[in-house]
Write a structure and sequence with these properties.
This protein has about 120 residues and is of the alpha+beta class. Helices cover about 40% and strands about 10% of the residues. The chain has a domain at about 5-85. The chain has helices at about 15-25, 45-60, 65-75, 75-85, and strands spanning about 5-10, 40-45. The chain has a two-stranded antiparallel sheet.
């Protein structure tokens, strides 16, 4: 899990960078607002959480659908960045043939098989 000071990189479109600059002017210097292509921008977890909060509030006052959609994507940045930093869980594969059958395990009978002699 990422700590609050760890830098997480996120890819942002120009529209997303513009709405971030509007809601968080202190971050505008590193957003490369003049560049039209997608840019990867580093943020701390604390910054992403603050952006999520600010974007959530700004959605209600959004002037157009484009702005509202960009803000909605900004609210998802923290979750998406966190998912990318998670370590994948190791898969454990068990061969069914290596497991004892219910009849072999402690003398228990398979509940689906009819009891012997009945």
């Amino acid at each position: 899990m990422a700590d609050a000071s760890q830098r997480l990189t996120v890819r942002l479109t120009q529209a997303q960078r513009k709405v971030i600059a509007e809601i968080a002017p202190e971050l505008a210097a590193r957003l490369k607002l003049d560049d039209k292509s997608q840019r990867t921008v580093p943020f701390t977890l604390a910054e992403l959480r603050a952006l999520k909060e600010k974007a959530g509030r700004a959605i209600r006052q959004a002037s157009t659908g484009v702005v509202r959609n960009s803000l909605r994507h900004v609210t998802e940045l923290e979750a998406n960045a966190m998912i990318r930093t998670m370590r994948p869980l190791p898969f454990v594969c068990l061969l069914l043939t290596s497991l004892p059958t219910p009849i072999q395990a402690d003398g228990m009978r398979n509940c689906l098989a009819p009891a012997k002699g009945k």
